[in-house]
Amino acid sequence: MFLIGDDGHKYGEIGIDEALAVAEEKGFDLVEVSPDNKPPVCKLMDYGKYKYEQQKKANEARKKQKVIEIKEIKMRPTIDDHDYDVKMRAMKRFFDDGDKVKVTLRFRGREMAHQHLGMELLTRVQKDTEVVAKLEQYPKMEGRQMMMVLAPR
Fold this sequence. Notes:
Layout: E1 2-4, E2 10-13, H1 16-26, E3 29-34, E4 41-45, H2 47-64, E5 70-75, H3 81-96, E6 100-106, H4 115-128, E7 133-142, E8 145-152
């Protein structure tokens, strides 16, 4: 096997008994780094400390990752201009946070006969958010609701 010291010093090719003796003498563990090589590569290291460092790196990476949530905005086909503007501001804030937005349009009673109004409203939403978001799921009807999903660019 090929032995590498804790400080990067290369001992070269030596037998396993000899490598274990060197590790015992220096107070380190003998760790097989690359078993597939010819000869296999082993390294002297404090294995407990190594595992601890790996765990710290994994925890740090987990802290930094962002979980993408799906926020929902509910509207009606007859929404007023000011209410629409308020909803659009909320959507822009969600996109800035990196979240997806599910736009849900609820039809009540005779509004079901005018689904084209709902489609026009969702098209308007899509056009207004075109700069900051892309369409992930096209508008579709589910019962009395029409919905679409937008994702940040």
